[in-house]
Specification:
It is found in: Mitochondrion inner membrane. It is built from two helices and ten strands. A hairpin with a 7-residue loop joins strand 5 and strand 6.
Length: 175
Amino acid sequence: MAQSQGWTRRYFRAFCKGFFVAVPVAVTFLDRVACVARVEGASMQPSLNPGGSQSSDVVLLNHWKVRNFEVQRGDIVSLVSPKNPEQKIIKRVIALEGDIVKTMGHKNRYVKVPRGHIWVEGDHHGHSFDSNSFGPVSLGLLHAHATHILWPPERWQKLESVLPPERLPVQREED
């Protein structure tokens, strides 16, 4: 009996040590390196959720890639909603700071993206709450760069940074 109590105690002690090492490592990884997220809604169709409400894509979000606010035109990014800080939204980067973009429904027909900001839009223009609604977005609201579709399995793929030709900035700031 004493021998089984000693084994149980050692097992419990080893479990606790592993737990107290694994949890901070996992939390740090998910906070600083990468995590997964389910994409809801039609704003990014056809790139994400092409099946509409029947399915939701699950994407890999790379936090590490945006740690220095280095994004490119065409990147699909996750960011904190400028209108609701408790919500994250996923959009495509259309223009960078200094670019002049022709808007689609914004109060101004042309907007010069200010320093420290980006212009983001959903791929499904009629169904997207984006910079055309709230204007340029501060780089400080960037959360992550969406790099891959992980689910459903038949849609596994790397997400390409492609800017639709009709959404090119009117004038680009030199890179």
